[in-house]
C-alpha cells in the first residue's frame, strides 16, 4: 500500500497567518491527491482534488500544489473558520490511503 | 442537493454482525462509484471499501477483507456494508462517500458502530 505522511501533526497559528501543510507519498502518485478539512463532530469536506484543483465553493485562500511524492496545502490568510484538521488522500491506487492528519490550532 | 444518509449503526458484541446502509439522493446514484470510510475515536480517516457503478468491481482494505462486504442497489439509490466477525477495533464512525474520479466530493454524516461486550 502507498503510505501518506503529513507534517506537521499539529500546527499553531494566528488569524491572518499563511499556513502550509506538507504531504509525502511513499511512491509516485502523479497528481492523484486530494485534501479534506474536518471539523470536530462533522464529516470531512473536500477542498482540493487532482493536487491543485479547488472544489467549487471552496474559498480561494486554499490552494494545493505538488506532484509525484511531495504535495502542499496552503492557506494564504488563516480565518477563524479554518481551525480544523486537514487530511491528504492518495487515489493513485485502488487502496486509497489517507495521511494521519494535521490539526490547525489557534495560537 | 446531494445527500448521503447512513444508518444501521449501533452497539454489537464482539464476533457479531451489522449491516450499514447509505441512502443517496439529489444525484443519479448509478452514475457514481461509492466508498465507505471510517474513523475510530480520536483517530484519522481509514478507507475501507470501494464499489463501482454497477457493483461488479469491489475493493477492500486489508483490515476488513474477508469480514466486510460492500454492495449497492441502484434501483433503491442505496449502498450497503455488511460487517461480520466484528472486533473492538472496528469501533468507529462509518461514513459513505461519493467518488468523483477518485476524490470524495460528498460525504454522509456518519453512523456510529460500537463493538463491545
Number of strands of chain A: 10
- Name the overall outline of chain A: globular
Largest interface: A-B, 23 and 21 residues
Low-confidence stretches of chain A: none
Distance between the termini of chain A: 36 Å
Number of helices, where a helix is a run of at least 4 consecutive DSSP H or I residues of chain B: 0
Computed Rg of chain A: 13 Å
Mean pLDDT of chain A, as a whole number? Answer: 96
Strand percentage of chain B lies at over 45%
Largest sheet composition of chain A: 6 strands, mixed
Strand order of the biggest β-sheet of chain A: 2-10-9-4-5-6
Low-pLDDT segments of chain B: none
Shape of chain B: globular
Radius of gyration of chain B: 13 Å
Q: Briefly note the structural class of the backbone of chain B.
A: mainly beta
Helix/strand layout:
The complex is a heterodimer of chains A (107) and B (117).
Chain A: E1 4-7, E2 10-13, E3 19-25, E4 33-38, E5 45-49, E6 53-54, E7 62-67, E8 70-75, E9 85-90, E10 102-106
Parallel strand pairs in A: 2-10
Antiparallel strand pairs in A: 1-3, 3-8, 4-5, 4-9, 5-6, 7-8, 9-10
Chain B: E1 3-7, E2 10-12, E3 18-25, E4 33-39, E5 45-51, E6 58-60, E7 68-73, E8 78-83, E9 92-100, E10 103-107, E11 111-115
Parallel strand pairs in B: 2-11
Antiparallel strand pairs in B: 1-3, 3-8, 4-5, 4-9, 5-6, 7-8, 9-10, 9-11
Amino acid at each position: 500500500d502507498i503510505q501518506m505522511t503529513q507534517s506537521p501533526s499539529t500546527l499553531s497559528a494566528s488569524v491572518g497567518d499563511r499556513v502550509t501543510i506538507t504531504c509525502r507519498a511513499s511512491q509516485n502518485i502523479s497528481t492523484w491527491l486530494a485534501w479534506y478539512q474536518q471539523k470536530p463532530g462533522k464529516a470531512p469536506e473536500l477542498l482540493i482534488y487532482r493536487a491543485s484543483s479547488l472544489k467549487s465553493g471552496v474559498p480561494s485562500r486554499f490552494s494545493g500544489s505538488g506532484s509525484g511524492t511531495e504535495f502542499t496545502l496552503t492557506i494564504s490568510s488563516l480565518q477563524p473558520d479554518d481551525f480544523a484538521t486537514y487530511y491528504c488522500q492518495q487515489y493513485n491506487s485502488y487502496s486509497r490511503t489517507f495521511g494521519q492528519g494535521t490539526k490547525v490550532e489557534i495560537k | 442537493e446531494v445527500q448521503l444518509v447512513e444508518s444501521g449503526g449501533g452497539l454489537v458484541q464482539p464476533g457479531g454482525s451489522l449491516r450499514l446502509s447509505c441512502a443517496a439522493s439529489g444525484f443519479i446514484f448509478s452514475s457514481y462509484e461509492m466508498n465507505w470510510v471510517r474513523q475510530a475515536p480520536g483517530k484519522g480517516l481509514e478507507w475501507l471499501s470501494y464499489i463501482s457503478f454497477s457493483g461488479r468491481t469491489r475493493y477492500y482494505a486489508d483490515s476488513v477483507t474477508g469480514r466486510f462486504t460492500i454492495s449497492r442497489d441502484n434501483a433503491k439509490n442505496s449502498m450497503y456494508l455488511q460487517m461480520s466477525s466484528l472486533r473492538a477495533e472496528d469501533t468507529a464512525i462509518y461514513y459513505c462517500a461519493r467518488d468523483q474520479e477518485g476524490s470524495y466530493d460528498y460525504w454522509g454524516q456518519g453512523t456510529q458502530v460500537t463493538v463491545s461486550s
